[in-house]
Design goal:
86% of the residues lie in helices and 0% in strands. It is an all-alpha fold and 212 residues long. The chain has two domains: 1-31, no CATH class; 33-210, Up-down Bundle (Four Helix Bundle (Hemerythrin (Met), subunit A)). Helix 4 packs antiparallel against helix 8, helix 5 (73-116) runs antiparallel to helix 6 (122-169) and helix 6 runs antiparallel to helix 8. It is elongated and about 75 Å long.
Length: 212
């Protein structure tokens, strides 16, 4: 069964705060919290991949501005601003996806811990507890990478925002020339961001594999 369709088809219950009703509905279709968590991790991984490309494109737009040799400066600004806004939106999507993972994982691990007490077979209980601890450790390793990647976005956004605002307030060739001094800092921050994103994506892939 393609449960990803079911998960995507029932977002309003969760958004309305009816998380338990959402889970109950999904379970009727054989979709457990574990499946939902994997789906959320896949969504966050994909969002990070998209965001990595958005920031790479934004850097390309900014560096190309350094080669400005005349033309409509307002048009140049509008293009750069549109790229910045697209990057900002992508960063917000990553933030939201990570929060969704945290919410579902908390519910999953709470449920798993409580259900350990329902075992009568102590050997099975021990194996389930060990599996829970291993899953939690894998999850925490992934989340450290995801949060590091998320944190890397904000210095880049701040730098881009400053340059876009400065260009907006000083639409002239001298303003563009003055932005050149920030190119190295922006390139370094974007490089770090891309490294953190790629590490996070790899960790997400490993977590997904461990859950299947």
């Amino acid at each position: 069964m393609n449960y990803r369709f079911l998960i995507a088809a029932l977002p309003l219950l969760a958004l309305a705060g009816c998380q338990s009703a959402y889970y109950a509905t999904m379970e009727q279709f054989g979709v457990e919290k574990r499946d939902i968590l994997v789906d959320r991790v896949e969504d966050a991984r994909d969002a990070q991949q998209d965001t990595k490309e958005e920031f790479r494109d934004a850097l390309d737009q900014f560096t190309s501005l350094m080669n400005y040799d005349g033309g409509d400066l307002e048009k140049v600004y509008n293009k750069l601003n549109a790229q910045f806004e697209s990057s900002e939106k992508a960063a917000g999507d990553v933030h939201d996806r990570i929060r969704e993972i945290e919410r579902v994982s908390s519910d999953l691990f709470d449920e798993w811990n409580k259900e350990l007490e329902q075992y009568s077979n102590m050997e099975l209980k021990r194996k389930s507890r060990d599996s829970l601890r291993a899953t939690e450790a894998s999850y925490l390793a992934m989340m450290r990478k995801m949060r590091a990647a998320e944190d890397s976005m904000y210095p880049v956004l701040d730098l881009f925002r400053d340059q876009v605002l400065f260009l907006k307030h000083n639409l002239n060739a001298r303003a563009i020339a003055s932005l050149d001094t920030e190119t190295a800092a922006i390139e370094e921050e974007v490089r770090k961001l891309i490294e953190d994103m790629e590490a996070s994506i790899a960790e997400a892939d490993a977590f997904i594999a461990s859950m299947r």
